[in-house]
Amino acid sequence: MENNEKLTAERSLEIISEAIEQGRRDVERNAGTPMIMWGVLSCVTGSLVCALWRLTACPVWNVLWFAMCAVGWIVYALMRRKERAECTPDSYVWRLVRWVWLVFGMLAVAVAFIGMLSFDTTVYVSRLPITAAIMLLLMSASAVTAYVLKDKAYGVFIGGNLILVNFVLMYPGPYEALCLALSAVTLLVIPGIMINRQAKRKE
Fold this sequence. Notes:
Layout: H1 2-30, H2 32-56, H3 64-85, H4 92-117, H5 130-149, H6 152-170, H7 175-201
Helix pairs in contact: 1-4, 1-7, 2-3, 2-7, 4-5, 5-6, 5-7, 6-7
């Protein structure tokens, strides 16, 4: 009886381990390309905003970030439609990671909107550092993905972004957008390429 219970417990742990490992493989197979897509869009938009802001000395070009979000969501929706057409199964771990990034996107838009409102000095005592807040949110979402993938190199990229956050807070202005672009490269594009390579090696 005790042996049967031991075997049952061991088998249960084995099933849980297999499910977690399958979820990690699902993240490796599905997360890389969306990360690269969003990273490239953010990098291009950030570089463009920085250049236009410097040329015109006008921060209004930051509205391009909202346009980027609209384009990104359309492209991502098309990618998700393709996944559904191919009947790609979703594991719990992959759904969890996707939900984390979805929450990041919604919070980033909310931070940008509230940050713009905070520029009204007749209502708000201080301004919200929009870029720094979004970069910290991006680091948080990346940390969850790095933990799921057990990727130490990804963790180094996350830690390195603290330097960019500090720079943004010290030198607000056009280069904020460039720092966000660099953050997108280190937290989305490079890890996305690494994830895709890992997935191909395991196929």
